[in-house]
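--- STAGE predict ---
source: upstream dedup step, 1 unique chain passed
mode: sequence only
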Amino acid sequence: GEEWTMGRSEKPGGVALTGWLCAIAGGLTVVFAAVFALVGALARALSQQGSDVFAQAGAALDPLSRALLEHFEAVAAALVIFGLVSLVIGVQFLRMRPAARAALEILSWVVLGATLLLEWASLTVSKQRGDTQPGNWISSPITSLLLSLLQVLACILIIRFVRNPAVRAAFRAGPPDSRG
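--- STAGE serialize ---
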């Protein structure tokens, strides 16, 4: 009787929110990857017919964005993998599986490193070509930098959360007994 009542009450605050956010972000990443793959395929098909969709729409793409679109299959595959991993980790985090805490920390470190690397590459490319043309807000280096900073902040907060002693202890104890 005592083991059964212990499980649910020891789930630290924020575990459910973190698990849900991780799972939802994973699902949305998979959807975004599918849309990105469609856009990439459409852009490639139109460019093979001699049409540059982005230039016609007045959307100035920076070289990094163009490179990502040129290799849309690999980018979409990587996004699907990250999305599925995030979805699975989020669900397992909600279930309080001991490995999920470590997996979420590792995923956060990987995303943090990739974000910093991609932002560095983006700023380097932007600086090399001497961004003097305004472009649109979505391809602006400032927008990219702000979004990257938000992502870095989210990763740091997640890493700090999963390293919290109460969270570590709760996950060491294992999942609550859901048999009732």
